[in-house]
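lol so apparently i was supposed to do this last week
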Amino acid sequence: MSKLLVANWKMNQFTTDCHDFFFEFNKRYTKKREAWVAPQAIQIQMCNELGFKSHVLVGAQNCSEHLQGAFTGELSARALMDIGARFVILGHSERRQYFNETSKLLNAKTKTALKEGLKVIYCVGETLSEREANQTLSIVGDQIHQGLNDLSEANAQNLVVAYEPVWAIGTGKTATPAEAQEVHGFIRQELTKKFPAFGSQIKILYGGSVKPDNVEELLGQKDIDGGLVGGASLKAKDFLALCGDK
Ligand code: PGA
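anyway here it is w/ 2-phosphoglycolic acid bound
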């Protein structure tokens, strides 16, 4: 399976940052690994133009479960497709934590996004206290089963799952490759049960302080198919290194 690196820029980049990033990225990206970028939604069109030469897929960090209507401030999956977004990150732990998104709500968002043709990166992960209480696999299992409830094999082909232990996001603490692999193996098994035909081919990304100096060891694990990256995706130099272009 080819490796996939996804840049989650969160609310960090502004117009000049986007220009600077792609100016550098386009010069050196060799497509050894697939690269997707999720800027703020209002920058999607601009990033599509800036990243055109590299064939980078551009996507959003959230969308509404509703398609259209009186939902002030919300972001429609259809409008995202219209401006050239091709994927959406759903269920990032910051959304679960600060915006009270539950796996049930995320299931509705996932269905809406897939129906409109967006690929979905569905995020799961346990908190530090859940890990310490030995609940990692049951928490992640529940997030998988509730969030991906009632999807078809055809849907599974447009699905990516990201495992991001909450305690490793933006903290500099990375799960060891063995810790990450244990959960990835479990997710692979659950996805294969859920989608017998395509489940084993769903990409499972690891996220949480992925950096140029730990990426190779993480990507060397059997069930780690790529990374979802925050901090180390903001500068082209670092993201290129993650993509195998040092
Ligand atoms: P980080 O963020 O790489 O800065 O830890 C990862 C993420 O939140 O997706």
